[in-house]
């Protein structure tokens, strides 16, 4: 490993690469524990987002008549696909926001083992969230092929649009995983934060509509990297359009820096975990 300092930008990727086998094993354990004793197992990973989609589609799509007008074929079906994509991408963050405050608290045995690398726990939790995202993504691809506009070569850029969200999710897991050891009420705070981010990240609406009809709000929302990433993912996967490269680049830079910040805070507070637990 080049450096043990968390401020070194290559310290995190170097450590995770060196511990990749352990991260893989813990990720598999996370996934196995979630389906253990369940009759439907992994199917719950599909049912939960589909239930949320049904509720939001009725409220916003049918009652309020929301549409994504940037789409070549704006309509209720296109809106449902765009909503499902937004919920899935945002779910990477909201999933880990809810779990991260108790990530270290729920593993006291690992904390008290001097030789155990605690930095792999947030990475494994993020890997499990990525697995759940991939499962629901299968449904989305089927929907795009059967009911949507089909896939174009722009769909190859979809992993790039999700990458900033993955970095942000990992950074949040490191940050709140560490802070949750010292502030036990953090779970309640992350629930409120998740709800605020849900409505501020363009899950239910197009960014262009906010920019056109509420420029004062857009002046603030435009700096939300999740909104930029979700908007870019819709453009490349659903509508066959080029992403806003400036917005996508901003969200990617923000994601990387936030991830490194979360890791630095985690490593700074890590020596005190055992004393608190």
Task: Give a description of the structure.
Helix 4 packs across helix 11 and helix 7 (158-182) packs parallel to helix 12 (245-269). The chain contains 13 helices and no strands. The protein has one domain (11-276). 71% of the residues lie in helices and 0% in strands. The protein is mostly helical.
Give the overall form: globular
User: How many structural units, i.e. domains?
Assistant: 1
Helix content: over 70%
Helix/strand-derived class?
mainly alpha
Strand content: under 5%
Instruction: Give the oligomer, counting copies of the same chain as homo and different chains as hetero.
Output: single chain
What is the mean pLDDT?
88
Q: Give the low-pLDDT segments.
A: none
Cα(first) to Cα(last) distance is 29 Å
The major pleated sheet works out as: none
Order of helices and strands: HHHHHHHHHHHHH
**Beta-strand segment tally:** 0
* C-alpha-based Rg, rounded: 19 Å
């Amino acid at each position: 490993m080049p450096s043990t300092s968390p401020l070194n930008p290559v310290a995190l990727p170097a450590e995770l690469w060196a511990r990749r086998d352990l991260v893989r094993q813990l990720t598999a354990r996370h996934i196995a524990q979630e389906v253990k004793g369940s009759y439907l197992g992994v199917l719950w990973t599909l049912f939960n987002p589909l239930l949320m989609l049904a509720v939001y589609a009725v409220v916003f799509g049918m009652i309020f008549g929301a549409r994504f007008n940037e789409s070549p074929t704006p309509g209720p079906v296109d809106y449902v696909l765009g909503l499902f994509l937004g919920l899935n991408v945002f779910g990477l963050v909201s999933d880990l926001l809810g779990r991260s405050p108790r990530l270290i608290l729920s593993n006291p045995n690992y904390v008290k083992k001097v030789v155990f690398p605690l930095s792999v726990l947030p990475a494994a939790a993020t890997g499990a969230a990525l697995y759940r995202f991939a499962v629901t993504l299968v449904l989305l691809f089927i929907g795009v092929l059967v009911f949507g506009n089909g896939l174009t070569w722009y769909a190859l850029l979809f992993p790039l649009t999700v990458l900033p969200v993955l970095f942000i999710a990992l950074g949040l897991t490191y940050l709140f995983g560490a802070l949750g050891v010292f502030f036990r009420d953090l779970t309640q705070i992350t629930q409120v934060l998740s709800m605020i981010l849900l409505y501020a990240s363009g899950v239910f609406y197009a960014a262009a509509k906010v920019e056109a009809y509420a420029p004062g709000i857009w002046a603030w929302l435009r700096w939300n990297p999740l909104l930029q990433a979700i908007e870019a993912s819709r453009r490349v996967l659903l509508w066959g359009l080029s992403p806003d490269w400036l917005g996508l680049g901003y969200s990617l830079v923000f994601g990387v820096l936030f991830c490194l910040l979360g890791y630095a805070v985690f490593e700074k507070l890590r020596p005190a975990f055992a004393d608190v637990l």
